[in-house]
Specification:
The chain has eight helices and eleven strands. The chain is of the alpha/beta class and about 250 residues long.
Length: about 250
């Protein structure tokens, strides 16, 4: 059994959505206005061994009072056509969901592509990304690989429309780094993103740059993982082995 904690005004709409999707393994629990923690009756229904849930328009204090139940998704508002909500309500069958973890996806992408370079700590938090985002991370890894191999992918701002991967040129997180024999580089905000108004784990981020290193273009990946805290970070490429010739050069 899974649980869906919903602000009282949207319970009827949520139950209609569950009926539309033929979902039968979710118990909807109404959260009243001003309620900061579950009632004793609600807590008695929750499994002591833990379980999983999602919440819709439920405040942080209430969420922290759910005991052993893991909050997998947080939705700040109810939208009937929210695709992340629908995916959580109707999980992809296990055989279709069997994507490789983010670390493996990026290790495979760089294995035969010397122009796609990972920062020393780029994958430290990669596998903290929610499995619901593994497909996105895998597709993003392959898209960056194609970019590194010199494929013309069109303007990054159009990647969402053309490749199904959203590119963001700015935000509240940036990375600084240095390159061999190169001038200081301004902080980089570029990132690929999927997931908003959800948990950090559900909001996957991939920070990267496209830069010439000793005359050869490389795609540099600083970070793969859940949404990091706002601020500036330093990326290191001390273990990098840079390619001295572009793809296809003899």
């Amino acid at each position: 059994m899974r649980y869906l904690f919903v602000y009282q005004d949207f319970v009827a709409s949520v139950e209609e959505l569950l009926a539309e999707l033929s979902v039968t393994d979710i118990q909807v629990i109404s959260v009243k206005k001003g309620e900061s923690s579950p009632s004793t009756a609600v807590l008695s229904c929750l499994p002591e061994a833990g379980g999983v849930c999602a919440v819709i328009q439920v405040d942080r204090k209430y969420r922290k009072s759910l005991g052993a139940v893991e909050v997998e998704q947080v939705f700040k508002q109810f939208r009937r056509n929210d695709q992340v909500l629908r995916q959580w309500l109707v999980p992809i069958p296990a055989r279709e969901q069997a994507r490789c973890p983010p670390t493996e996806a990026f290790e495979a992408a760089v294995a035969d592509c010397g122009w796609l370079m990972l920062a020393d700590d780029a994958l430290v938090r990669a596998d903290e990304v929610s499995p619901i985002r593994w497909d996105f991370v895998g597709r993003a890894a392959q898209l960056l690989r194609r970019l590194a191999l010199g494929e013309q992918l069109g303007p990054m701002r159009q990647w969402q429309a053309n490749h199904g991967i959203h590119f963001a040129p700015n935000g509240q997180v940036h990375f600084s780094y240095s390159l061999p024999k190169g001038p200081p580089i301004q902080p980089v905000y570029w990132h690929l993103t999927e997931g908003r108004s959800t948990t950090a784990e559900g909001a996957s981020r991939i920070y990267f740059d496209l830069r010439s290193v000793e005359g050869v273009a490389h795609v540099l990946v600083f970070y793969v993982g859940p949404h990091p805290e706002d601020g500036g970070y330093q990326a290191s490429f001390e273990s990098a082995k840079w390619c001295g010739a572009p793809p296809g050069a003899h």
